[in-house]
Amino acid sequence: MLDSVTSWASECSTCVVDFATSQLGVSVILAAVVFGAMQGVVSYSIYFERKIAAWMQDRRGPNRTGPLGLFQPIADGLKFVFKEDILPNHVDKVLFVLAPTLAFIVAFIGFAAIPWGGQLQIGDRLLNIQVANPDIGLLYLLGVGSMSVYGVVLGGWASNNKYSFYGGIRATAQMISYEIPMGFCILVIVLTMGTLRLENITLAQTGYWANGLIPQWNVFLHPLAFLILFITVLAETNRTPFDLAEAEQELVGGFHTEYGALKFGMFFLGEYAHMITSSAFIAVLFLGGWHLPFVPWAQPEATQWYAVLFKMGVLGAKICGFLFVMIWLRWTLLRFRFDQLMRMAWLGLIPMTLALFLLTVGLLYFDKHRSPVWALGGNAVILFVSLAYVAMSSKPITGRQTNMPVISEREFGGSQAEVSA
Amino acid sequence: MPQDSSLEPYAAIGVLIALVVVTAIGMLLVAHLIGPKRHGPVKDSPYESGMPIIAGTDRRLHIRFYVVALLFLLFDVEVIFLWPWATAFYASAVHGMTIPLEGGGIAGKDFLLVGMGFFVSLLLFGLVYEWKKGAFRWD
C-alpha cells in the first residue's frame, strides 16, 4: 500500500518535472509569473508616477503609508476593493460591467508574444522564455492593442452620461487615428526584418556594425520611425499630451466618470499594463529587446538560467526607461487641443510614416534595407522635408481654430481700443 | 528555434487568457460582495459635479467623428493588407522567392513592387482627396 503510494508520488513528481521543463510548461509558468509580476509592477508604477510627479513639482509625494510610502499601492488596492461598487440606474448594466473587464483582459493578454529572455537550456533542450512564439507575434500584439479601444468606447457609451460619452467618443477617434501611423511604423520593421516573429526580430538585432562598435538595433536604422511609434503609443495609451479622453477640466473623468471601486481600478490597471506592454513592444522592435551590446550574458548564445534572468532584467530596465519618459512627459507637456491632435495624426504622422514606408520599400528593393547610411539618410530627408513644410506653411500645425474670430472682433466687450476708451 | 506555423503556441495564450479572465471576474465578484450597498436617488443619477443635470447624452455630436471612423476603416484595412505583402516582398527581394502566376509567367520582386505601388497610390490619392475636401479640418 505504502509502496504504491510512494511510487505513484515519484511518478507524479517526474511527470510534473517533465511538464515544467517542456515548452508548454515553461510558457504556462511564465504566463502566471509575468501576469502576477505585472500586477505588482503596475501598482508600483502608479506609486512611482506620484513620487516622480512630487519630485518634479518639489513636493514629497506619498510618504505616510509605510516606509517612504511604499505600502501606498497596497492601501489603494484595498480601498478599491472595500469601496461601494456602484451600478447606477441610468447605465446599460451589461456593457457597464463588461467595459472595465474587457479593458483589463485586453491589457493583460498582450504580453504573451513578448520575448522576455531568449532561450533557456534545460538538459539538452532549448526552451523559449516567451509565453507563445507564434509566427504572427507582431500581428497578435497589434490586434490585442487595437482591442483596447473597446473598453473605452463601451465604458463611455454604457455610462449614459454626457461627460463619459464625449470622453469615449474622443478617445475612440484618437486611438483609431493613431493606429494607422503605428501600423506603418511596424511595417517599416517588418520590411527591414522580414518576419513577424518577435523572437527572430530580437535575434536579428544582435549583430554589430562598424567593426563591432554599434549594435544592429533598429533605432540606428530608423530613428524617425522609433520616435513616431513612441508618439503613437502615447496616444494609444491615452497618456499626456494625448489624454483628451479624461481631460479633467472639460470632461470630469472622461469615459470613467461614472466608475468607482474596483471597476475604476481595473481601468487604471489596464492603462498601466498597456503602457508596460507597449514599452516592451517598442524595446523589442527598436532597441534589441533583451540584447545588450558587449555583455556576454545578454547574447543569444548565453542560455544558462542566470543569463536568462539577466536578459529579463535588461528588457525590464528598457521598459522602466520608457515608463519614466512617459511619466516625465505627463508632468512636463500640456494637453493638445482636439483639432491639433487630429491634424497631427492625419496631416502630420500619416504622411510621414507613409513616406518612411515607401523609403523602406525602396531600400529593400535595392538591397540596402540593413544599410545604416541609406536608412539614416532617408530618415533625415523625411524629417527635414516635414519640418520645412511645417515651417513654410502659412498656418502652423498647432494653430488657432480658424473659424473663431480674432479676439478684438468678438461680440462681448468689443475691441481692446473700445474697452479702454 | 521552431519555425512551424502550428497552433501549438496558442495553447499557452489560451491558458493566459483563461487566467486573466478568471482574475477579472474574481475581482468583479470580490468588489461586488465586499463593498457596501447604499442606493439613493442622487447616487443613482448621472454625475454632474453635484448640480442638477443640465443635459443628457442625446445632444448632437460633431459629424467629423463619423468621417474619422470611415477614414479609419479605409486606411487601417489597407495597412493590414500591406502586412502579408511586406513579408512576401522581403522574401522575394532578399531570398529571391517567386510566385507562379495563373496565366503563366512568374512574379518576382518587380511584380510585387508595381502591384503595391498601384495599391499605395490609390491610398495616397484618397488621402490627398480627403485633405483637399476638408475632411481633416477640425475647426
Description:
The complex is a heterodimer of chains A (421) and B (139). Chain A has 421 residues and is mainly alpha-helical. In chain A, 63% of the residues lie in helices and 3% in strands. Chain A has 14 helices and 4 strands. In chain A, the strands form 2 sheets. In chain A, strands 1-2 form a two-stranded antiparallel sheet. A two-stranded antiparallel sheet of chain A has the order 3-4. In chain A, α2 packs across α10 (261-286), α4 runs parallel beside α10 (261-286) and α5 (137-158) packs antiparallel against α6 (162-193). The radius of gyration of chain A is 25 Å and the shape is globular. Residues 412-421 of chain A have low confidence and may be disordered. Chain B is an all-alpha fold and 139 residues long. Chain B has a single domain (9-34, 45-133), classed as NADH:ubiquinone/plastoquinone oxidoreductase, chain 3 (Methane Monooxygenase Hydroxylase, Chain G, domain 1), CATH 1.20.58.1610. Chain B has 3 helices and 2 strands, in the order ααββα. Chain B has helices at 9-34, 64-94, 109-133; strands at residues 99-100, 106-107. Chain B has a two-stranded antiparallel ribbon. In chain B, a hairpin with a 5-residue loop joins β1 (99-100) and β2 (106-107). In chain B, α2 (64-94) packs antiparallel against α3. The N and C termini of chain B lie far apart (53 Å). The model of chain B has no long low-confidence stretch (mean pLDDT 80).
